[in-house]
Amino acid sequence: MPPDAPDAYKYLQELTTHFGPRLTGSSAATDASHWAMQKMREIGLENVHLEHWKLPHGWKRGYAHASLTAPVKGPLFVASLGWTGSTPAGGSEGSIIAISRGASIEELKHMASSWAGKILFLVADPTGHKDTLKDLAGLGSVVSLALSSRVLAIVTGDDTPAPSGKSLLHTGPASFTGEVFGIPVVDMNAADRARILQLLKAGREVRIKLEVENQITSVPVDSVNVVGETRGYEHPDEIVVAGAHLDCWDLSPGAIDDGVGVAAVLEAAKQISSNGSRARRTIRFVLFTGEEQGLLGSRAYIQEHQNELAKHIAAVVMDDGQGPITLVRFSGHNALLPYFQSFTAQTSFLKALSADNSFELFTDAYSFTLAGLPGISFGQNSPDYDLLHHSNADTLDKVDPETLAHNSQILALTATWLADLPERLEPTWTKAQTAQMLTENKQHKILEMLKMWPF
Ligand SMILES: [Zn+2]
Predict the structure, then answer these.
(1) Taking the alpha carbons of 123, 126, 131, 136 in that order, is the dihedral positive or negative?
(2) Per residue in 53-106, pLDDT tens?
(3) 422 CA distance to ligand 1 centroid (A)?
(4) Per residue in 169-225, pLDDT tens?
(5) Ligand 1 centre and the CA of 259: distance in Å?
(6) 14 forms bridges with which residues in the sheet?
(7) Measured between alpha carbons, how far is 214 from 85 in angstroms, rounded to an integer?
(8) Complete edge-to-edge strand list for the sheet that includes strand 221-230
(9) Mean pLDDT score, 349-375
């Protein structure tokens, strides 16, 4: 760490080196939440506490070994997706059957009668069309169909060619609703996937052996969101949430997803509470868990604070990697846009920011959007993010201390601006208003596929 590193970077350095990966429901996540609570107390936040919620099942990674057994032999590198199952002791061996990601579930149902005893290998849509959202939304249905069709295991992975030398393993969820699947689902690194595809293209029968062990708990496990506040001087009962997610996947310390967000929230809290000038409204700093399993912690927050939602103004969340913030997304709440644009035009530090009405589905901000509030998220210039996050390379060395300090300041200014608006611009929307806006903005279908449409 540079000796004169800004505090945000020091927070991140502690977070990524004092604990193991902060997988939701793990003891490392619990330890990190106590650390975060302690930091909030040191910063001088008020009302610092933990809010408990239950994860339906806990999950712990064991081992995942794979090898090519025919037509040639050799090792393969794989990692389990979260909340997926194990092979029988001694492993499973079977021939690979390639399935296009572009196929609809109806098409797959027609083919599924020939799947028993095979290993499904998900491959890119032959048209080259790539839709990450749809891929994730559809994966849970494919896994369920595979399970009922007595498939041995599923192999997935990124189909975009990896930059040479960066053949990383990634983990992630098999669904976005906290479901568990009693079948192994593994990510395979891009180089091994390319090799298997070449064999399949050459018309060879490809067989692989997998030995996978994971533990799924049958009972719910406890998790916590960490909360602290600076109270407003005029409307202390009105709340702006500034948040990020404390949990991460378990292949790495989650420095960019979302350790940087956690560090920025703590740094913003420190700046706001130490400059002595409170905002009109309360700023509530929240570090969520369960984001990676389907925004579970922020959805639990919404449940827990139902009676207070009419008093919430907005939530602003940082969760787009290590790069500089370039965009502020207002998620369908365009009434705020012109006010924000005039604020940034007057604030030299923020002049380069753009703002628009777009959405970022996979952030805790979205839970607030679904609850009728502006779920504001940042767009960041993090070109390596898709490659690095959820992989074993999501480590501290990817983070530039100055950029993190700069992002922390943008988060502090945006939260303070919201909390200090002279008048509330609009009340919390009704369910009907929110449903209509999401439908008009083409969010309805994808939310239904993800089983997240709440209306
Ligand atoms: Zn994230």
Answers:
(1) negative
(2) 999 999 999 999 999 999 999 999 999 999 999 999 999 999 999 998 888 888
(3) 32
(4) 999 988 887 789 999 999 999 889 999 999 999 999 999 999 999 999 989 999 999
(5) 9
(6) none
(7) 6
(8) 46-55, 221-230, 281-288, 235-245, 312-317, 375-380, 325-329, 354-356
(9) 94
Cα(277) to ligand 1 centroid in Å equals 31
Instruction: Tell which residue, 455, 449, 453, has the closest CA to residue 175.
Output: 449
Confidence band, pLDDT 50/70/90 cuts, at residue 3: very low
In sequence order, the 6+-apart residues with CB closer than 8 A to the CB of 369 are 331, 332, 333, 359, 375, 434, 438
Q: In whole angstroms, what is the distance from residue 20 CA to residue 43 CA?
A: 24
Measured in angstroms, how far is the CA atom of residue 144 from the centroid of ligand 1? 25
Q: What is the pLDDT of residues 106-158, one digit of tens each?
A: 889 999 999 999 999 998 877 766 666 667 677 888 999 999 999 999 999 87
Q: How far is the CA of 256 from the centre of ligand 1 (A)?
A: 8
Q: How many C-beta atoms lie closer than 10 Å to residue 161's C-beta? A: 9
What string of DSSP letters covers 317-337?
E--S-SSPEEEEE-TT-GGGH
CA of 225 to the centre of ligand 1 (A): 15
Angle between helices 260-274 and 401-419 (to 10 degrees): 60
Tell me, in angstroms, the distance from the centre of ligand 1 to residue 274's CA: 28
CA of 106 to the centre of ligand 1 (A): 32
Alpha-carbon distance 162 to 168, whole Å?
8
**Alpha carbon of 185 to ligand 1 centroid (Å):** 21
Over the chain, what is the mean pLDDT? Answer: 93
pLDDT of residue 275: 78
Q: Residue 306 is encoded by which pair of tokens?
A: 């139902």
Rounded distance from Cα 118 to ligand 1 centre (Å): 33
* Cα distance between residue 400 and residue 345, in whole Å: 26
How far, in Å, are 168, 296, 332, 386, 435 from residue 429 at the CA level?
43, 22, 11, 33, 10
